[in-house]
Write a structure and sequence with these properties.
This protein is mostly helical and 180 residues long. The chain is built from seven helices and no strands.
Length: 180
């Protein structure tokens, strides 16, 4: 079910839906057509097809039960624990020279290790949900030279950034007045 706490159904109604799924699973095993099962059980063909997909992927009667989602969540939780162990090894253990985890690197490790594809934002949400956070250094590096940084900001950065103002005044026409 897609909704928490049984989708707003009472315990009796949840039990009824569970029995329907299990009856459908028995008939899946017999190889009956989805349309016939849906008509007999008085459910939509679309729901029955979804149940059949779950049953095929889960390979069995228990996969058709409504608590199959909890099994999937438990499996994802186990993978998250393993992902945490992989991240604890550090980036160097996974082939990067420095000790910096980026979302792209975490995504790569998850893809290589677990054969799962996440987006960058999906990786961020996964990490936050499991207690990982962005890390900022607690103190500045000993090697930092504040005078050199201040000089760079005043001298180099303005040249690198460039001026946003045009060198000569703009012209609203597409052609210049002196052009042939």
């Amino acid at each position: 079910m897609r909704y928490p706490q049984g989708g707003g159904l009472t315990a009796e109604r949840q039990q009824f839906r569970e029995e329907l799924r299990l009856k459908a699973a028995e008939r899946f095993a017999l190889g009956e057509a989805s349309a016939a099962i849906a008509k007999d059980l008085r459910v939509s063909v679309r729901s029955l097809q979804r149940w059949r997909r779950t049953w095929v992927v889960g390979r069995g009667r228990s996969a058709a039960s409504s608590v199959a989602g909890a099994g999937i969540a438990a499996e994802a939780e186990r993978e998250t624990v393993h992902a945490g162990a992989e991240l604890a090894k550090g980036p160097a253990a996974h082939g990067w020279e420095d000790q910096r985890w980026t979302l792209a690197r975490v995504k790569t490790v998850i893809g290589r290790r677990f054969h799962l594809t996440y987006t960058i934002q999906g990786v961020r949400k996964l990490l936050v949900r499991n207690g990982w956070s962005c890390q900022v250094p607690a103190r500045r590096a000993i090697e930092r030279d504040d005078d050199a940084v201040a000089g760079w900001v005043q001298e180099v950065w303005p040249c690198a950034e460039g001026s946003r103002r045009p060198v000569e005044p703009g012209w609203s026409s597409r052609t210049k007045p002196g052009s042939p």
